[in-house]
Design goal:
The chain is mostly helical. It has a domain at 8-63: lambda repressor-like DNA-binding domains (434 Repressor (Amino-terminal Domain), Orthogonal Bundle), CATH 1.10.260. It has helices at 12-23, 28-35, 39-47, 54-63, 84-97. It is elongated and about 70 Å long.
């Protein structure tokens, strides 16, 4: 067996695309007619032969009424700050109650 004979496992997202299409009882040709995305392209995504660009993936998933979302896997995930001012006030309050910084009078 040479290097070209080895095939990477299909990404779970590619498998999900096929699963959704089949659950909707759509052939690749029917999906193409509904979305305008060529059947050969969708088939290549589903087989893992091609990686769908993000806008195309969003378009495909939108057809099934799904969207791409980010979900943390555990508590150690990076969390973006949504309200910096509130978080800085909370930190300052914690420091003041622990007497770690002098209070301003």
């Amino acid at each position: 067996m040479n290097a070209t004979d080895t095939k990477q496992p299909i990404h779970p997202l590619c498998l999900k695309l096929r699963e959704l299409r089949r659950a909707a009882n759509l052939s690749l040709t029917q999906f193409e007619k509904l979305t305008g995305i060529p059947a050969v392209v969708v088939g290549a995504y589903e087989r893992g032969d091609r990686v769908p660009p993000l806008p195309k993936l969003e378009q495909i998933l939108a057809h099934y009424r799904y969207r791409i979302d980010v979900v943390s896997v555990d508590a150690s995930a990076v969390r973006p700050t949504t309200d910096v001012v509130s978080e800085l006030r909370a930190i300052a309050d914690q420091l003041e109650t622990s007497n770690a910084v002098p209070t301003l009078s």
